[in-house]
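Table S2 (continued). Query chain:
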Amino acid sequence: MRVEINTRYWIPRLAYNAGKHLAVIMSLLRKTLLYETLVQNGGKMVPFAGWLMPIQFDGTSVLESVRHTRRHASLFDVSHMLQCRFSPNSLESLMPVDTKTMRVGAAQYTAILNEQGGIIDDAILTKRESNYTLVSNASRVNAVLALLSDNVSVCENALFALQGTVRLLCGLLSEHQATSLLFMNSLESAEFTITRCGYTGEDGFEISVKPEAAPSMAELLLKDARVKLAGLAARDILRLEAGLCLYGHDVDETVTPIEAGLQWIISKSRKDYPGFDRLSMQMRMGVTKKRLGFTSPEGPLPREGAVITELENGSVVGKITSGTFSPHTNSNISMGYVNADSVEGLKSLANSTSLAVQIRGKQYPISALFKAIPTAALRVPRVTSLPTLLLRQPIRIGLRVKETLSGRELTVGRMEMERGGVRARVWSTTGGEISEREMWGGKWRIADAK
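Corresponding output:
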């Protein structure tokens, strides 16, 4: 039996109905306080975690936006993220953080854990005078709020991320305030809160602004010709170049901080956080699944879900969780998890030069780095804090660095650093121990870099 379909009738009708459904869906999505400004500036809005967010902006390609952030500065609207305040009553029952050692104004990257040590969400926790603030992912709002105590209050502020080389906050802070505000620390005023942190691998600030002041604040920040608006696509490339995780892709409730390479967020003085037994065992005995960074010298871009294999025999050993093209290495980069039957087997795989990624039935060689920061060693040296500068270098001991204001040079000796906070010690072979304020407050560069 032959059935003929009147395509001249049905295709336009189906397209019309699809358009109606899309319009309904779009009308249900939330808009940030900066939505009108973003649209007026050419923002291409797309659905993201229940919000309408800019994927990129007219007149600027995604790669141009990435390069601009690295060379100058970009402003990201991240108001879709959950911002809340809560009392410390139930805090330590959720996160492996030692709040007793945190100073008022200090911020810390942390994770909310389930009973198996899996990551319910990752977040930035900041200690205030009488309570705490938490900034976490928009996609996990319901899960996070359900776990916090009843006296939690959701903050409706706008949230901007100013990322790049611009140190002065366009009149918001004095030069002294901007340069003396240490990494992962914050300043709070009546209208806004500024934290020195970010999600791009660059120096920068995240600024939480009262709703009524949000448009004028954005306008003030954009007055600087070096600052341009940027969208989600550029932000994803920037965070992947820096080896930073995206929740729901690189980490989730089935992955522990140890497996994700985030063991530095776990307090050594705590034993009562969720999943303590499993995590302490993993720290002692090792893991058989590990997040790694990869570079791909040839072949198509590895996307999420692509299978990682051994090049020689094709055995499946893992999968890709994030992938993109890196304009700063001019190659494809990605991250993912490799699995093995034993800890030693995992280490052997992680250091192997014979891994491949399977794309459309073909194998393409990839290079793995045991530390999941695929391009950190390839970044151009910048003027920044000494710990941030050193964390980006492939060779740390014996490196000559220079403080740009005083002209002081030193050779780096033994180092002890904690990437998630401000605790760091650096011994110079030429000048003794460097103070924390010198390290984080000074502007350092590689001594022989132009």
